[in-house]
Amino acid sequence: MAFVLLCLGSATLLLVPLAFRDLIDFGFGGKQTPANGGLADGLSLNGRFLALFALASLWAVTIAARYYTVSWVASGSRPICAARSTARCWRSRRNFSKPCKPAKCCRG
After folding, report:
1. What is the H or E stretch that residue 33 is in?
2. Tens place of pLDDT for every residue, the chain, 108 residues?
């Protein structure tokens, strides 16, 4: 999931300069023909601003979702490590009166 969000965010970020170029070309060049081959053909100046804003918003949402996904996956590693080290400790020792020390990966 994080890889998909990374690819989507990267593709969105690559489209922002194209949208900005179309916005500048249309703003300074006046009306252009639809055969120009630009990113937002057929849109007015306001529509091009909205397209640029939509791309920036999509990029922000994908970055936030990727950060959440990676944080969610990484936060689960500490309890899993603690459970594994506890199980490893129980299997390796015969005297249960001593408390187990957590593994290095489980310490903050």
Report:
1. none
2. 888 988 999 999 999 998 888 888 888 876 655 555 565 667 788 888 998 999 999 999 999 999 888 887 766 666 667 677 777 766 665 555 566 665 555 554
Q: Within 13 Å, how many C-alpha atoms sit on residue 82's CB side?
A: 8
Rounded to the nearest 10°, the torsion over CA 57, 59, 60, 65 is 120
For residue 90 the two structure tokens come to: 């129980």
Supply the DSSP string of 47-91, one letter for each residue.
HHHHHHHHHHHHHHHHHHHHHHHHHHHHHTHHHHHHHHHHHHHHH
What is the C-alpha separation between 48 and 39, in angstroms, rounded? 9
User: CA-CA distance, 45 to 26, in Å (whole number)?
Assistant: 7
CB 44 within 8 A of CB 27: no
What is the rounded distance in angstroms from the CA atom of residue 33 to the CA atom of residue 20? 18
